[in-house]
Amino acid sequence: MRASRVAASLYGARAAVCEMPFATVASDSLGGVGGTCVLRGCVPKKLLVYASKYSHEFEESRGFGWTYDTDPKHDWSTLMTNKNLELKRLVRVQTNMLKNSGVTIIEGRGKVVDPHTVSVDGKLYTAKNILIAVGGRPSMPDIPGIEHVIDSDAALDLTSRPEKIAVVGGGYIALEFAGIFNGLKSGVHVFIRQKKVLRGFYEEVRDFVADQMSLRGITFHTEETPQAVTKSDDGLLTLKTNKGSINGFSHVMFATGRKPNTKNLGLEEVGVKMDKHGAIVVDEFSRTSVDSIWAVGDVTNRVNLTPVALMEGGALVKTIFGNEPTKPDHSAVPSAVFSQPPIGQVGLTEEKAIEKYGDVDIYTSNFRPLRATLSGLPDRVYMKVIVCANTDKVIGVHMCGEDAPEIIQGIAIAVKAGLRKQNFDATVGVHPITAEELVTMRNPTRKVRRDAADKAKMKDEATSQKLEASAFTYALVSSFIFVVIVAGVKVMCRKIRAFRSHQISQATRIIIVCKGGLFGDSTTRVHHCSVVSQSSHIFIYNSVLVHH
């Protein structure tokens, strides 16, 4: 939408948008102007986050003197009705924005039939350039009983509140919905395949957010992979995993990732290259392998965020119509997870910062916010600031706690502008607020230095080389001792054969076991050094030397 509006309004281009009819839950024939974010992603999800937070605030209020004659009650149908009314309003707004910019709206499902032609329900439209911006869709595993499972689209449009729900997945979508249903007083169990939630995020926040959500009543099941879902006669669901089964769920939701929505678009037939996940491969200017076809947003699987797609679309328009080749800038992109508590981050993680800069200073703070002192609830806030030690530049800020997304948007400006830690330190804080902590962390929690790490690595390598040399020497000495032992055994055997008057029966065995300082521990010595003689046969086990 952004690309077409800007192309038409600023550059006078003839632009058209192909979109399917509106529906709150998408399908192969239904969608709506505004796409995933507006209709079945960011916006409706955030509305449900707002709704779910009130229960926590009711609990907080008791410590501030509020009392209730009866517990507050929530009406699910009111929430869904008002949410859908807002979505319809947004569709009208988005549609009017396109029309007012001079963009033609073509309703229906489009398919690319050649580098310059799109077929919409059988009608052909030609254009000099084609932009693919179809986003992604939920990805579901192929397991028995998958027909009983809902995805994130359906979870936003349920007719009733789940009594007890299993949320399968450990990513941001899973955590956001777990917080929503927990706040709306559903029983929530989260099943993840890994040991921790939010793979790819920094370690501290993974532990912190899981602990905080657990304190609010969410049950986490780690290292559990779903294998099947069954439905009983009473309509309740059972989730079977590699560790067992849990029953009694009214709903089972899979939030196991999203995949590019490239199926049945005709892209393969016209030569558009895609990766193994179905994402469209583009160059640094968002051009595909077909010169006249471009792609932006989640369908390219670069940085899958709505504001990033808007930025990519703006850069694309400059490249095509403004005679100003512009690459999308994916650096210092802020993002948020609307879990409860929420997460905000911008810039590099500690691991990436060390990899890129080597020497970094880490500032962290884990504290109880003022609000929690009277509420009596176990709410806490975690903050982390990452600084390049050589330049003093702030290269990453991460936060988990109330208002983290709102705070991180302002901090993102500072990180994008390349401000230094001394600029943060020179800024007067607003007191008393949570964000004040970001300008009052004076002393680093720890310092990471590449030289120290390299020295440690070199020391380890030197030690390893010494051990290898010792092992080689050991092997030579051991081989020599083997030869001596075998020679001794040969002599002994000859003497035995010669000693006819005291002949030893064939059932007798002569066993020689090396002991004492040849091969590591005693178990290994026996295993490698036993020589067994039966009659005239001598075997040295686990050795290349065998004598008959």
UniProtKB/TrEMBL annotation:
GO CC terms in record: cytosol; mitochondrion
Obligatory cofactor(s): FAD
Ranges where the Pyridine nucleotide-disulphide oxidoreductase dimerisation domain occurs: 333-441
InterPro entries: FAD/NAD-bd_sf (IPR036188), FAD/NAD-binding_dom (IPR023753), FAD/NAD-linked_Rdtase_dimer_sf (IPR016156), GSHR/TRXR-like (IPR046952), Pyr_nucl-diS_OxRdtase_dimer (IPR004099), Pyr_OxRdtase_I_AS (IPR012999)
EC number: 1.8.1.7
Residues of the FAD/NAD(P)-binding domain: 26-313
GO biological process: cell redox homeostasis; cellular response to oxidative stress; glutathione metabolic process
Protein family according to the UniProt entry: Belongs to the class-I pyridine nucleotide-disulfide oxidoreductase family.
Name of the protein in its database record: glutathione-disulfide reductase
Originating species: Leersia perrieri
